[in-house]
């Protein structure tokens, strides 16, 4: 690769504002001697994703968790991941060229789902959710490393990364986690806690080196729905689901002034 080959991938959703922003951004980057390839280039130095949080998540999944820094331009609703607005393109290019940014490395959560036939691996930037595919209660035997923890009964459980703590996890009453803490949060979804069934009703926080094992108990032929970052996978006859923090890293580009708790206040309060 040539030394001065400086390519930047632009990935956009199909909203008119996103497409328009992508067009203007491409023009501006090219004027600054960057190459904006037509097809995704794995040798690029940066990915700019235009859309909301969902677009951000889908981009990372679609390109297989690339080892390239990524920054987002928000044209969505919330845009918790997105660092920039469509009105800050010149300012961004200026700061980028001067190196006025830092890279935040985050680990996704990894799930290994084994049926009687085979195992597949899935990754979640925000979370992995395990729930019943029908409306009946599901029962999940939960172990932490080598110890049995509980038989969960309810709608399901969610395992969130610190990054995902502000997403679905938060709506379920889970805690917002400072990104300096590397951990997983197991948050119950409508846990039943009666004399018939006993489940923990709060989130459980476990260290990054834990392995969570889930053995579904099959009653009423309920099959299991697994959702990672909003993407659904359906399985029947799952024997075991193993969940841990992945060693893979996603590189989020942040502007110098980024501060997690300011972002939380800005978006939530
Ligand atoms: P979506 O239904 O549009 O997402 C729901 C909301 O979550 C959107 O406002 C989205 O932002 C926001 N969001 C996503 N990641 C976030 C994060 N890390 N921190 C704070 N807010 C975040 O679906 P989507 O856009 O494809 O996103 C998928 C995510 O939605 C899943 O990973 C899950 O966490 C979340 N979700 C939440 C609920 C709930 O709260 N009841 C239910 C299902 C899924 P944008 O508006 O910018 O897209
Ligand atoms: Mn969305």
TrEMBL record:
Predominant cellular place of this UniProt entry's protein: cytoplasm
UniProt KW Disulfide bond keyword: no
Pfam families recorded: NAD_kinase, NAD_kinase_C
Gene Ontology terms for molecular function: ATP binding; metal ion binding; NAD binding; NAD+ kinase activity
Family matches, as InterPro entries: ATP-NAD_kinase_N (IPR017438), ATP-NAD_kinase_PpnK-typ_C (IPR017437), NAD/diacylglycerol_kinase_sf (IPR016064), NADK (IPR002504)
Location of the protein in the cell: Cytoplasm
Assigned GO CC terms: cytoplasm
Reaction catalysed by this enzyme: NAD(+) + ATP = ADP + NADP(+) + H(+)
Enzyme superclass (EC): transferase
EC number: 2.7.1.23
Protein residues bound to NAD(+): 53-54, 58, 126-127, 155, 166-171, 190
Active-site residues, record numbering mapped to chain: 53 (proton acceptor)
GO biological process, one term: NAD+ metabolic process
Function: Involved in the regulation of the intracellular balance of NAD and NADP, and is a key enzyme in the biosynthesis of NADP. Catalyzes specifically the phosphorylation on 2'-hydroxyl of the adenosine moiety of NAD to yield NADP.
HAMAP family: NAD_kinase
PANTHER family named in the record: NAD KINASE
Recorded family membership: Belongs to the NAD kinase family.
Stated name of the protein: NAD kinase
UniProt organism field: Caminicella sporogenes DSM 14501
